[in-house]
Please model this.
Amino acid sequence: MASPEARRSPACGPADSFAERRARMVETQICARGVQDPRVLAAMARVPREAFVPELTRQLAYDDSPLPIGCDQTISQPYIVAVMIEALQLKGGERVLEIGAGSGYAAAVLAEIAGTVVTIERVAALAERARTTLADLSIRNVEVREGDGSRGCRERAPFDAIVVAAGGPQVPDSLKAQLATGGRLVMPVGADQLTQKLVRVTRAADGQFVTEDLTDVRFVPLIGAEGWSAADVEPTGAPQ
Ligand code: SAM
Model:
């Protein structure tokens, strides 16, 4: 993993001003709203979000909101990233699968805690940019793959944790099948494409899946064989 020095902000503003904003973001947007896991807070305090947003909006990197990253997609609000990663209950060293790499930011946060992260992105240009950004930051324990992640990644399964950063009509069976015993999957699920419930599915020792509702969220759609069909996707404004 890269040293904090190696992960300094890009040369588009004073590095400590981004560092100060990042520290403030953790305190006011994340801690203050109840995220407590010290691993998640430390990871959010280390990863430079400004490196994952387009140059034109870099000054907004620590705003309390999702931001456009091109190709009609967004980098999620920092608080939601923290909530989803905390819900995975990572202790360190796990094998994690993320669906919806987008900018690569959440994968970078996951990589601070987990052993290895595989992240899948269906939009080729985003996958390529995420790969470049992660390489520039010397983050070496993330593999960015391009394709339909709604079917998961059988050749790297099982995973201790799976996080889906896009909303689907149900939890894909393929993803459930790729969870290790005791593994957790966190995903936005909704019968329409406008709003979802964030759910956590745990694979119990007896092979049963236990589902918990966590909170209401609004994500871009999961488009793929076990998500929404691309032809049915409706414009949804500016969700996560
Ligand atoms: N985690 C991202 C980050 O940190 O920037 C934000 C993800 S964005 C909210 C959701 C992403 O899911 C989009 O980039 C979208 O292209 C991607 N996506 C949607 N359906 C997908 C699928 N079936 N497989 C892989 N990626 C998908």
